[in-house]
Design brief:
It comes from Streptomyces caeruleatus. By secondary structure, the protein is an alpha+beta fold. Helices cover about 20% and strands about 25% of the residues. The protein contains two helices and six strands. The strands form three sheets. Strands 1-2 form a two-stranded antiparallel ribbon. The chain has a two-stranded antiparallel ribbon with strand order 3-4.
C-alpha cells in the first residue's frame, strides 16, 4: 500500500501522477486536484478546467485575466 501525499491515507488503490520530472501519489482525484491544480491569480479558485495562461500567469478565465489588466484575452468556446 502507498500513502496519499495530501491526506496521508494509507490506501491500497493509490495512483501516481508523473509531472515535470516528479512522481506524486494520491488516493483520490480530490487530493490530486488540491495538490496539482494551478490557482487563478485574480479570484484564487483552483483551475480544474482549461484556464487561461497569460505572460506566465494562470487565470480561471478571460474575465479574471482582464480584471488583472491583461488585454486582448478571450475565452475559447
Amino acid at each position: 500500500m502507498a500513502t496519499c501525499e495530501v491526506c496521508g491515507n494509507d490506501y491500497g488503490m493509490t495512483f501516481e501522477v508523473h509531472a515535470q520530472g516528479a512522481v506524486h501519489v494520491f488516493d483520490c482525484f480530490s487530493c490530486a486536484i488540491h495538490r496539482m491544480a494551478p490557482v487563478c491569480e485574480h479570484c484564487r479558485v483552483q483551475i480544474i478546467g482549461q484556464g487561461v495562461e497569460v505572460e506566465g500567469q494562470w487565470f480561471c478565465g478571460a474575465h479574471c485575466a482582464r480584471a488583472e489588466g491583461k488585454v486582448g484575452i478571450v475565452d475559447k468556446v
